[in-house]
Please model this.
Amino acid sequence: MRAVVFAGPRTVRVDAVPEPAIREPTDALVRPSLCGICGTDLHLIAGDFPGMEPGVVLGHEFVGEVLEVGAAVQHVHVGERVFASDFTACGHCRWCDRGEHWECADRAFFGSGRTFGPALAGAQAELVRVPFADTVLLAVPDGCSDEAAILLADNLPTGWAAVERSGLRPGETVAIVGGGAIGQLASLCVQAAGAGVVVVVEPDAQRRDVATAHGALSATPAQAQDLIRSITSGDGADVVFEAAGRDATLSLAFELVRRRGRIVVVGAHASASWNLPLADSFAREVSLSFAIGDAIRTRRKLLALLGARTLDPSDLVGRRVAFAAAPAAYADLLAQRALKLVIDPRA
Model:
């Protein structure tokens, strides 16, 4: 079968790989109808994380049709249109019982080599093996487009995880550092959760335009502090989300947050260490936390918001590309010529 595979630093190719098969009774096989390219995929092929080797099938966002299920699968059925969490979890350990699926000992992250645990072939392929199918997969409701469903795998749950972790209160001022897909979806999530003014901080003009078209203010990094101070009578933002995964953007978050404010990091960071402004953070009582999206925990809530049109993020997804165009799509995303692109593996 065809798949998009890691071919070396900043390089992907479309290659023939062996078809997966049911290995465990809790597995399912899914034929994707749409596969997403995520910012984490860009980090992975750029070499920001260890654990990647040439030949790894990429991708962790997909929606498709169930072709086969293992003998122990009870709630997922052949022929169903489903979407998946970006990582697996057993669904019954103490971590899963608490809704903390990322900490499950059976976690495996699709399409990332051994970066985040055991290797699991990714979703940018004509067929995907899904362990723990009853936990990882969920049926797509009627009326939900593939473009909306693909965002429920990772990007939208990550934006919502930032909201949950921040303890956002209605009317609070929120700054989001990074206007990529995660930052744009975090902006939609905080607006849906009752934030007051939302400012997306992003150097790229087109991404700033996207943010303003979806209800936020926008600013370049150089403009951000003055804008936020003018909005907050000099205080700073109540909450800052760092959504770019860079040392410099995390440092900027500390400059934008008010005294006793909260910073939540949802960008994927690869640096082993970073210089925390410790004395200043102590004196200003700044809180710093980290959040990883968990579709298994939040997808039903997010589906309800999508169904009610409280959230409508599907227009953030750009063009569909065929398998043959996947390397060019990756190049466009690396160069920030697009915000979010998806692969149609049937084309």
User: Anything to note?
Assistant: The chain has a mean pLDDT of 96.
